[in-house]
Amino acid sequence: xxxxxxxxxxxxxxxxxAVATCVWGASLFAxxxxxVWCASARSPRTGLVVGLILMVxxxxxxxxxxxxxxxxxxxxxxxxxxxHTTLAAAVCFAGALVERRRPAGAGRLLTMVVIGFVATxxxxxxxxxxxxxxxxxxxxxxxxxxxEDKACxxxxxxxVLTATGDxxxxxxxxxxxxxxxxxxxxxxITGNPRMCQQTGVLVTHQVCAELKDISANAVQVDWYVNx
Length: 227
Hints:
By secondary structure, this protein is of the alpha+beta class. It has seven helices and six strands, in the order ααααααββαββββ.
């Protein structure tokens, strides 16, 4: 038993770090490639090296977005399902070749990719006519009092936040800027100023927040996916 533990320590270490990362990023689906590799790798050396590459890939798809970063190099949440899975399958395939074995698990890797695309379709379907998630607008600054709601119209659904407190409009603008939102064009429908955040490596995901000053200490923020 002690011998087997010494032999498989790298699997336990990778799984522990991967699970912690996925739980923190609320993206347990991204754990699948690590599970597949840990179950199929034979050589401890190759297993660890390829596993570390998969961990870097996982961190790239999960961490920046959770930190509120944005930009064309930050993967969108939907890309975790299909792009991350496809790239991870390619890494696992290369690792199998390095181990000089016929990738008997090639069918398993292909299944993993197919599952990723199926999950993508399911998530996109589930999001139809659904209001967006927190999208780094929430949680709001602790010093503000927040009232939340959602609204729907012919163009879809959006979230509504009313913040009150000392300098609420300025505080919310500073908060959005710190979470990766930048000034965007004024809404042609409401005339309200907007701040937008864009993520996505291959598929763009843009969220815009309209800010309507109610008073010096109150502001309404409406945010939606700008398709």
